[in-house]
Write a structure and sequence with these properties.
The chain is an alpha+beta fold and about 180 residues long. It contains 6 helices and 8 strands, in the order E-E-H-H-H-H-E-E-E-H-E-H-E-E. Strand 7 and strand 8 form a beta hairpin. The protein is globular and about 40 Å long. It starts with a strand and ends with a strand. Keywords: Acyltransferase, Transferase.
Length: about 180
């Protein structure tokens, strides 16, 4: 476990998380499909989620990508996930992607989880700059970035291509220990 509060815990993804992770992703497909299409595609069934966890565990061992799971402290539910990706170890930089289930949105939990995960990543992995990319219409994600201490850096043209849509401009937010 990398973090614990009265409401939730955060830990690295583990094989025992398969059922609850699959439940989170499948039950929130409509919310997550636009910005997490690859993750959803890799988790359509319980078996595919087990395979996803195996791949992501190996990826973490190789320090290529890390998946953190947010567990509700009062149930067995996984309420969200944070993916640390696009790691550049020379630049000491990485990017967060995240999602939270519809039952838990709007409560400030993801902002607290991003802050906690940022602290862990900086202290334990040695990263110095963390990024969040969000579309301008995804106000909950933008608010999470800002409340987590990330600062807007600019707009990246045609940065992300959702399924069956034209490429989207994305807003870049960064948190750096240098500033």
């Amino acid at each position: 476990m990398i973090y614990s509060s009265d409401l939730f815990t955060i830990s690295l993804l583990k094989p025992k998380d398969a059922l609850q992770l699959n439940k989170l992703l499948v039950s929130n497909t409509d919310r997550f499909i636009r910005f997490l299409p690859k993750t959803l595609e890799e988790n359509t069934t319980l078996e595919s989620t087990r395979n996803y966890i195996q791949r992501k565990t190996k990826s973490a061992e190789k320090r290529n990508e890390f998946v953190f799971i947010i567990h509700d402290k009062h149930s067995i539910d996984i309420i969200g996930m944070i993916i640390l990706k696009n790691l550049d170890w020379k630049a000491k930089q990485g990017e967060f992607a995240y999602c939270i289930g519809k039952r838990f949105k709007g409560k400030g939990l993801m902002s607290k989880a991003i802050k906690a995960t940022s602290n862990y990543v900086i202290k334990n992995l040695g990263l110095e700059t963390l990024q969040i990319l969000s579309h301008k219409t995804n106000l909950p994600s933008i608010n999470t970035a800002i409340r987590s201490g990330f600062k807007w850096q600019g707009t990246l043209k045609d940065e992300f291509k959702p399924l069956n849509e034209a490429p989207l401009d994305m807003e870049l937010f960064e948190y750096s220990i240098a500033t």
